Structure formats: C-alpha cells, structure tokens
Amino acid sequence: MTVTTTATATTTGSALARYCAQRIFQPVPDVLIAGNPFLRPIGPLGEHDFSVPATEAEFLGSGQLLAGRVLCNAYESDMILLPPAGLASAKDDFDLFYGDEVRALRDRVRPGLERYAFSFLDDAVPAPPVRTLDELQAYFLAEVGGAGAPADASGSNPAVDAAAPVSGTMKAITECRHPEEAAALHLIQLALDALTEASAMARNLGGSYGVEQSELFKIFNDEFGYGVYGAKHSTIFKEMLASVGLRTDLHAYWNFYLTSSLVGVNYFNWLTEDHRGMFRYMAAVTYLEWLFAQGFADTGAMLRAVYGDRVDAKYCDEHAHIDVHHGRMTYENLLLGLARAHGELVIPELVRGIEDTKLLLRLGDADFRAQIAWADALDAHTEAGAALATAAMDDAVTGTLRPGSPFSTGVYDADRLVEVESGEVDVHAWATQNPHRLGTGDVLLVPRGRLHGLKAASPEARVTVRTVERTFDA
Amino acid sequence: MARVIVMDLSRHNTVMVGHDRYFVLDTGGRAELVRDHCPHRGGPLSLARRTPDGRRLSCPWHGTKVGVAAVRRSRLPMVRSGDEALVVLPDGADAPVSVTHREILANLPPDPTHHDEGAEHG
What we know:
The structure holds 2 protein chains of 2 kinds. By secondary structure, chain A is α+β, with helices and mostly antiparallel strands. Helices cover 50% and strands 7% of the residues of chain A.
C-alpha cells in the first residue's frame, strides 16, 4: 500500500490551520478533560512542514505528535461518541465535531498527514522476500517465535503461562519509584484504543469478501461481548480503570497520550479507513492477537503487583484467555485464509502489516520506557538542568503562565532547559495528582521527545526555555 | 406446574423459551431438544459441525469441542409420537415460547475439512 496525496502542501497547510483553529481543538485550562469526548486540544502548529514525511528518526518529534492528534480526531469523527452525562452537556461541541466544516477540512488534511505520519514505515524496514503460502507460514511462525511466543506442538498459538515472572516494560513499571503513576500511564495509553475497542475493526465488517469476513466477525463478536454491555471489552476496561481511581470517560487523559501511542492507534484506523490497507490490517491484527494472550497475562501480573487486590484486572484475564483463541483464529483463518484466497498478489502486503507492527511496537515500547524513566526522576532532571544551565544556547523563548492559562502538553525536538524565572510551575509528565513543582530559579532538563505540560502553581509564573546540547544522558 | 408444548417435528426444529434457544439434535437416531449454547462463550451449537468421530460438536465461534454426551445433558424432557413431540419446558419458565424452523448444521455428517483445533469441553 502506498501513501498518496493529491492535495498540495499549501492548500493542506491552510486547511490544517483552519482545522486546528476550531474551538474544540483548542487547549483549555484543565489538565484532564472531563466528560466531553469532543474536546481534543492539538497544540500549536508552529512552522511545521507536514508536506515532507517524517523519518523514523523523527518518530517522537513534535510533528508526529501534532499529526497524531489531528489524525486521531479525524478518524474518530467517523465513530459515534457521546458524553456519559448525556448529550445536553456537550451538544454544541457534538454539532461542531461532526459538522460539515470540520468534516470537509478533515477530508482535505487527512491524506497529507497520513503520508507525513506513515511513510517512514515503508522505508524503515526492508520487506522480507516472502511470496508463497508456505513461506508466509514459515515467516510468521519464525516471527512470533522470535517475539517469545513460539507455536505449540499443534502449530497453534501457545497457552498462557500465568506464572511467568513480569519482565521488560512491565517489570520496569514495577521498579519505578512511583509505580502507580507509571502503571496509570500505561493504562492511559491502552485507553486510547480500549475505550473504543474494536471500532477500527468494525470498519472491516461490511462488504462482501468471503469466509474471512465471517471469521473477523467472530472476533468482533467477542470484543463486543456478544451484545451484552457488561461483557463488552471496553466496559470491562472501564471497570479496570475505575478500580484504580482513573477516569473512565473517553479521552479524559487526552494530554497524556504519547506520540507513539497516537501513531500506533492511528495506524489501525488508517488501514481500516483506507480499504487498500485491509491486507496489512488483517496481518497486523493476526500478529498482535497471537502475542496479546501472554502480553495481557503479563499486564495483569504487573497491575496486581503495583495495585494489589484493589485492581479489577478482569480485562487482562479476559484477553489472556480469549486471545489464545483469537491468535489461532486470525492466523489460520485470516492471515493464511487471505493468502490462500488471493495468493501471491497479497502476501507482500500481509508481510508488510507484520513488519509495520513489529516496528511500531518496538518504537512504542522505547517511547513509553523513556517517558516513565524521565517522569519518575524529575527531581534528578532538575538537578541536571541546573548543572547544564551554563551550556544552554542563546535561543531563549520566554512566556508567562497563569492558573487559568490554556494547558496543553507537547514535546521538544531537541533537549531543552525549562527555567522558572519567577513564580512556581507544576510539571505534568504523567497523569498524577502530585505533579513535580518547580520554584523560582529551578531549571528542568526536558529531553527531546518527552511529553510534558506546564501549569502555573502561583498567580503568575515566567518560564524561559532554551536549547541545550548534551554529550551524555543526564 | 410445569408447562408443556406440543411441536410438529416435521415442521419445526427449534424452540425459543425467552432468550434460551433449544434445537433438535439427532443423537444416534433419536431426536432430542438440546440447548443451543456452547459452554465456552455461548456460541450456537446448532451451527456446529461434528468432529470426524461424530462424538463431539465443534463450536463455530472458537472451535471449542463439546461432547454430544454433554450437550444431551441440557435436553428438555420430550415424549415423541411420530412427528408430534410433547416437550416439558424448564421449571419456572414463564417466558414467551415460540417454535420455528432454522438451519441446523449439527445434524450433518462430520465436516471433512475439520481441523483438530480449539479447546475441549465436556
């Protein structure tokens, strides 16, 4: 699948500016956005040129974050979202979000932003030379084996090892100084997809494409709890959030979605919105479903280690069970089924979906690990900032914050020092009720790509931001 | 007092009792009215295919194997005379009852394309 656009950079840029200028996409003073699924601050566009695709090296840059937010808004305006308190609480925003002007602008900016956001996938990894059904089978089993989930003796998705010790990112969360904040940040990244779970998949249910269509529907049926609201995966995900004191309304934590999370979720919406992506999608889903069973068993173990008995991890238990089935069903009936039905014409696209997913998982894992490592050590990064202050470049940008100032999070494209010249400022690097407080004279090192937002903790605060070049990791 | 219905097996093979569905399963030449509900996730066993040995049903949702003997344990008491069958509904069932004819795959010969996949049940 090739990412194409017919819009010129100029017209796209103009439409993008108009799209982002919509009231519902402007920052509000609140750190959390409660009870309104239509308020989705994008942040300042600055001088970004979205006509040149982002490279893999720019994956965590501010351009990808902004494009990710716009694309998330664009894709979700195809879904039905309603505020939990009733539509009366946000009727004007509902009308604007789904209105003619916003949808027309959305349709103009989306192809260009998709090209910007996803083109690097085609360049980042050379597609392996897999052409035949047998090669596809061998390739897939080698990939999932390499990812730690080799097929069992019957050639199917392996059973879950519920006693497996937590490792990797899950272990890193438990080892944080603030494990509950780190675990919450992980749940928030999952929430970006889980609160509308299977909505992207729903785009592939219509039409007429043979046995595979019915196979996908079976999986969708599980995701939607067989028509029982209490069994719907998004419902039991909400129960998990609520059990650890997190908000359950859609995008309440909008400001805390990491760049990689937005790109990852948008990827699946992109492939289902543009039906040329259906083969990539089916393969990507197959790869994920195969790995999810053990992955969610590990997530459940992490959550129980962090939160103890108070966490309701039924969502993880459900996935640790049903995704054993889904891994087998997608592999045998979707991945191999589509390869059998459509042959060598589509096998490269199927492989592409798996390669894309592997890369997005790797980049996403690195982003999350870097975020929790930084957010967990803001005091150390404040000391580092003070030590680096004399090395800052002469490119200071100064701003004034007040408690009622619009709040939004963002990332820098280079390491920056944030210095509080007067007043006090709270740094929000993850969703916590105890943000890191900077006093007058404090200097915080914010590494490139780290998501953060600043909020005045005094009636007024002056903040200066400078670029700093480092030759080591502070 | 138990409720009883009479159904014509030449015309009908399915009974709805509220939200619960029962279908006529052929168990070695005997027609039995069994619950159309896989014990794994509630899949429609009437659309299951038999395994090659004919002794289990492979649920269409997740491939779960359900022994015919286990399915028979969900049967409703039924007395048959020719095509006419007297069915005793579950105790306390005051839900609406209807009889209908639906496609039933579970009575077809075993599926020749069957793969031995999925978990065992019952």
